[in-house]
Specification:
The longest helix has 7 residues. Strands 1-2-3-4-5-6-9-10-11 form a 9-stranded antiparallel sheet. It is mainly β and 209 residues long. Helices cover 3% and strands 54% of the residues. The radius of gyration is 19 Å and the shape is globular.
C-alpha cells in the first residue's frame, strides 16, 4: 500500500422550519489514499418534528461516495461508526451508500424510551462493495459482497427495527430489540438464491458507575 494522507472538510447546518427542525451535514475529502489520488464526499439531510411532548418523528437521507474507478473515491469515515452493533446497523457502514430512513422516538417519561425505524439501503456505486461499520466489505460465502460489473444492481435491501430501553435505577438499564431484514436484488444476485427475510432480536443489560 502507498501513502495515505487526506483531508476532510465537514460542515453542519441547523435551523427550524415551522414546527420541524432541519439538519444538513456534508463532508468532502481530498488527498491520497493507499498511493492513489483521493476525492470523496458525503451528504445527509434530516428533518425531525415533535408530534407532541413525548413523540418525535424524523426522515433522514444520506449519500456517501463509493469508487470503482482508477482513483480512490470511496469516502473514508476514518473511525468505525459509533452505532451499537445491534441488527442490521452492524452491517451498514458509512461508505458507498445510499440510505433513506423513516423513524420515530417515544419517551413518555425519564425511564422509558422506545424507537422504531424503517431503512432502505442501496449502493452509491453498483460496481463497488457493500461495506460494514468497520469500513471493510461485508463477507459472503466464498468472498465479499461486490460485483465489479455492476450487474447485481445497487438495491441492497431494507430493514425494520424496534427497540426499547428502560432505566431500572440510575445505574441499571434494560434494553431489547427486534427487527427484520428484507434482502434486495443486489444480495439475491450475489448469492444466486432467493434468501428469505431475516429476523433477529436481542436483550441487553447495562450498568454504569
Amino acid at each position: 500500500p502507498g501513502t495515505t494522507q487526506h483531508y476532510t472538510l465537514n460542515h453542519v447546518y441547523k435551523r427550524p422550519i415551522g414546527r420541524a427542525d432541519l439538519t444538513l451535514e456534508g463532508s468532502v475529502q481530498a488527498g491520497r489514499f493507499n498511493g492513489l489520488d483521493h476525492g470523496a464526499f458525503t451528504g445527509t439531510i434530516n428533518v425531525s418534528s415533535k408530534l407532541d411532548k413525548t413523540v418525535t418523528a424524523f426522515v433522514e437521507a444520506s449519500v456517501v461516495s463509493g469508487s470503482s474507478g482508477p482513483k480512490s473515491g470511496a469516502f473514508d469515515a476514518i473511525y468505525p461508526s459509533p452505532i451499537l452493533p445491534h441488527g442490521m446497523r452492524s452491517q451498514v457502514g458509512f461508505k458507498n451508500l445510499k440510505e433513506l430512513t423513516f423513524g420515530a422516538f417515544w419517551q413518555p417519561d425519564t425511564k422509558l424510551k422506545l424507537d422504531g425505524f424503517y431503512t432502505l439501503v442501496g449502493l452509491f456505486d453498483s460496481k463497488d462493495a457493500w461495506y460494514g461499520i468497520g469500513g471493510t466489505p461485508n463477507r459472503k460465502p466464498g468472498g465479499i459482497y461486490q460485483d465489479p460489473t455492476g450487474a447485481s444492481g445497487s438495491q441492497v435491501g431494507s430493514y425494520l427495527q424496534l427497540e426499547a430501553a428502560y432505566k431500572l435505577t440510575k445505574h441499571d438499564t434494560l434494553s431489547a430489540g427486534v427487527g427484520a431484514f428484507f434482502p434486495g436484488t443486489f444480495i439475491k444476485k450475489q448469492l444466486g438464491t432467493n434468501p428469505s427475510t431475516q429476523y433477529w432480536g436481542y436483550l441487553g443489560y447495562g450498568w454504569k458507575f
